[in-house]
Design goal:
The protein is about 10% helix and about 40% strand. By secondary structure, it is mainly beta.
């Protein structure tokens, strides 16, 4: 298994153009749509939930695993940054938001040519942060 990178996709395409057989390697595209939380109330005690998606589309049926990086922070404690505060949040594999999705929590496996995977996000309530725009970048890795 290896992570899909632009280089491996290019190399696979180059082998096909040259007529050199490849070892059953499918070309896949990854299209993540970020988790949108909306407006957070720092005085509220309720968590704020959001949803995003990751579409993986392959040119042939493939078995693959999708993992999420840590972003700012760790798998257990991701952080969105704003000026000058940080806002804790996390990403989950399940709608009940119990199974953290990240490098330490394993990936989501699938088999097929196209799949939409839902990413469930949660910002815990009662975080005393200043009003600002908060954001984080998380790397999506597809291994097949």
């Amino acid at each position: 298994m290896r992570p899909m990178t632009g280089w491996s996709r290019w190399l696979g395409a180059a082998c096909l153009l040259l007529g050199v057989p490849t070892a059953a390697t499918a070309g896949c595209n990854v299209s993540p749509q970020g988790v949108s939380f909306g407006n957070y109330d720092p005085l509220g005690h309720s968590a704020l939930d959001g949803v995003g998606t990751i579409n993986v589309s392959c040119d042939a049926p493939s078995s693959f695993t999708v993992s999420l990086g840590t972003g700012n922070g760790t798998v257990e404690d991701r952080r969105m940054t704003g000026a000058p505060s940080q806002l804790a949040y996390n990403l989950y594999k399940d709608v009940s938001r119990l199974l953290v999705w990240g490098d330490g929590g394993g990936g989501v496996s699938s088999n097929g040519t196209s799949v939409d995977l839902t990413v469930y996000g949660r910002i815990p309530g009662a975080q005393n942060v200043r009003p600002d725009t908060y954001a984080d970048s998380v790397t999506v890795t597809v291994t097949f």
